[in-house]
Amino acid sequence: SDICQRMCCPKTRRFDLHIVDSANQEIIRIKREFRCCVGCCWFACCAGCSQEVVIESSPGTVIGYVSQECSCWRATYVLKNESGTPVLNIVGATCICDGPYACCCGNKFTIYGTGGSTEIGAVHKKYRGFVAEALTSADAFTIRIPLDLDVRMKAIALGALFLIVSEFFQIHTDLHRFSLPGFCTLLLTTKL
Fold first, then answer.
1. Confidence of residue 108 (pLDDT cuts 50, 70, 90)
2. Of 58 and 72, the one with more pLDDT
3. What is the side-by-side strand order in the sheet with 62-69?
4. Which superkingdom (predicted)?
């Protein structure tokens, strides 16, 4: 994304994330287009205001989507396969907290299976303590998903993690700096 979008629209800016393996070969690409009125789950009913990321494995080959769904109270996302069929759902907490006083909040986004009632995983923002939260802009997130989940759905869940981070937790750091944001390194290990 360009500097204007980073300064003026940090939560709604477009981005392209490139995830590489240990040989520096791109294995996953996560793309989001700019949306002008994002942030509130009420506005997700309008297609122009709903957040969505596209996940590609080997650039140009779409393996799935993560779309924000309309909700009156909580952040809700649908993880879809390459044909657009819903496979998993993510439902956020009723209250999302960030910063040094967030120790009371769970900041848990629950991942539900196809039926929508069985919890199969979660995305968490880890609370690092009052001093670390107050004095730094670094955050730690975890994602818990079943080991036997299809590898493409694992990549789509990773895309959902980045969408949640950009929508709920990135605004606090981007508004206070005018330089390029820090880099994030992911180490993905798989069993062959």
1. confident
2. 58
3. 15-20, 26-32, 52-56, 62-69, 76-81, 86-91, 108-112, 119-126, 140-144
4. Eukaryota
Distance CA 65, CA 56 (A): 9
Instruction: Tell me if 124 sits within 8 A of 98, measured CB to CB.
Output: no
What's the predicted TM-score (pTM) here?
A: 0.75
Beta bridge partners of 89: 78, 112
| DSSP-assigned letters across all residues of 59-121 | TT-EEEEEEEE--SSS-EEEEEETTS-EEEEEE--SS---STTGGG---EEEEE-TTSSSEEE
Q: In 3D, which of 87, 89, 64, 45 has the Cα closest to residue 156?
A: 64
Q: Average of pLDDT values for 131-159?
A: 85
pLDDT digits (tens, 9 = 90+) for 71-105: 777 888 999 999 999 999 998 876 666 555 555 56
Count, in order, helices (H) and strands (E) of the chain: 4, 9
Q: According to the model, what pLDDT value does residue 1 have?
A: 56
* Strand, coil or helix: 10: coil
Residue type, position 148, single letter = D
Query: Is 67:57 a contact under the CB 8 Å cutoff?
Result: no
